[in-house]
Amino acid sequence: MRRVIGGVLAVSLLLAGCTDEYDDDVAATSTPPLVVQTAAPEDAAATSPEGGAATSAPAPVDPADSIGDAELLGAVEWVLELLEEDAEGPTVREATERVAPDLLEQVSPVELGLVLGQVRSAGPYVVTAVVPSSGVGRAATLSLAAQDPLLMTVGVDEQGRIATLFVQPDTSGEPPVVDAWPDLDAALVELGGTSQVVVGRVEGGTCEPTWTTSGVEAGGEAVPSASVVKLLVLLAVAEEVRSGGLTWDEELTLAPEVMSLPSGELQDRPEGSTVPVREAAELMISISDNTATDLLMDRVGQRALRRAAVDAGLDPTAIMPVPTTRQIFQLGWQVDSEVRTRWAEAQVPETREAILADLPDRLDIAPETVTEPRWQDGIDWFLTGAQVCSLHARLQQLAGDPAGGPVREILARNPGLPPPEGVGYQAFKGGSLPGVLAMSFYVEPQEGAVGGDGEPAAPEGLVLVVQTRSAEPVDPLRAATIVGAGLQHLVDVGG
Hints:
CATH class of the largest domain: Alpha Beta
CATH topology of the largest domain: Beta-lactamase
Number of helices: 15
Number of strands: 17
Radius of gyration: 22 Å
CATH superfamily of the largest domain: DD-peptidase/beta-lactamase superfamily
Number of domains: 2
Strand order of the largest sheet: 10-9-17-16-15
Structural class: alpha+beta
């Protein structure tokens, strides 16, 4: 049964030139998908974990206290005015002045007014939280309290016009109580499917797993991890820079063979335009740009990816060759099931390499058709939690090298979730594909911080990896709330 908001049948309407993100990092501080979506999972938790009513209502906040960008603030305030009870419009003139042309090519002022009117009918709304984007782009996400709470993201282009408008039900709910790691495992059951938690301590460029979900071998099983594999790509890039085979300011050229599907923004740039290696790496990590990923993979090559995998303790027989995002989309949603069967049954890299070589030259997939889970067919990048932890550890070690200087900033550009109290540095990489949701965090305590036992916190860093796979969609907002409680526990107990 679909949820009804404000008496209006739940709908999902595209408000920009791309569809709902199927490979988003579920980051509370990054730019979300560019849609107005008022459909909510039937079983989404909008109240307390026990199913009772939510606790006391949060206090109203002023967006001006959090948004320092004057143009972005003006755009946010304009949208909020349109959501007031007695508001109308926008008029054609207002929409033309306020909304980016690319968005208006997809949605007319009349259609925009109809959608905003539907959202308005579910109000009135009170702004209770504002989180400016810390990834790439100028955007802010607002929590809107009402009978059915919403999350709204507004983003602007270089001219200050609205290029992003995303409204979705706030299914985040109340955080669970996590006093021990089995509590996090128990809370994740709410998401459906199967979840795996791995916790590790990082010292000297290596990871020592300290907790793995009960019933799973230490360090975790190799499970679908979606865009978390981009940590491996960043590691290969950083190692190539250190060896002298690449520089952070080298210009890479966008060509048809490296153009992938969203998430990201490079797929919308003109063919033949260039992007520096560092910018591509920042886009790959902070907004999970798929075209940036494939561009970097094309530049460093499979040999560099293999060296990085071996350095991080990954099994090259299991992971090589590393498919590009473009190839994963083709395997999962362009070619027929016979190809997927051969891919799933392939035991050696040479067989998988031959399958990839036979894929069509053209990427011919409508993004909105990427909905069916394909991880059961082996279509994804499969990593253990310990391997993800090892990638974080190796990257932080390389960051200490002069050539790896940008790595720490790149990894921290989008922290994924607000850093818990006591954290001095937080890196993040997550990812999702249909039926797959993965989040990984590397945190370092503030100087002088202590763990819950009163002992000094971890000497270098701590890692939390949560990987969920399901035959059904996974609610990313509820997952973020649950994992956020686990992240706080990680900091409290020091691993």
